Amino acid sequence: MAIAATAAALAVQLPNSRSAEAEADRIGIELAAKAGYDPRAAATLWQKMGAVGGSTPPAFLSTHPGPEQRQEKLAKLAPQMQPYYAAAKNPPSHPVRVGEAARSGTG
Question: Which long-range contacts (CB under 8 A, 24 or more apart) does 18-26 make?
Fold first, then answer.
């Protein structure tokens, strides 16, 4: 009975954990792009992590997506993040003062 309860808990918890990790990756690549980091580098990071990571448990037992899945997903997200990256690399030519941003509703 204990084995069945553990298996049932894993069947519910592990996919949710992997989903949360995938969401964290998406948020992370967006924040990095907005901070001026090239979003294409996220996929190469996971390529490197996979190369040095060693053995991993089977996907159905893992709490995290595998490096290959993360690399693939981040590579697909990178084009969507390019506008954030471009905006961070090319800020507005005139600085906005704190008081002006508050009055104009932009900050």
Answer: 18/62, 18/63, 18/64, 18/65, 21/63, 21/64, 21/65, 22/65, 22/70, 22/73, 25/65, 25/70, 25/73, 25/74, 25/77, 26/73, 26/77
| CA 34 to mean position of chain CA atoms | 13
* C-alpha pair distances (Å), 74 with each of 40, 69, 78, 98: 8, 9, 6, 35
Residue 29 identity (one-letter amino acid): I
SS3 29: helix
Reported as a single tens digit per residue, the pLDDT across 6-59 is 655 555 555 567 778 888 899 999 999 999 999 999 998 888 877 887 666 666
**The model's pTM:** 0.64
Domain extent, residue 66, equals 2-104
| Count of domains for the chain | 1
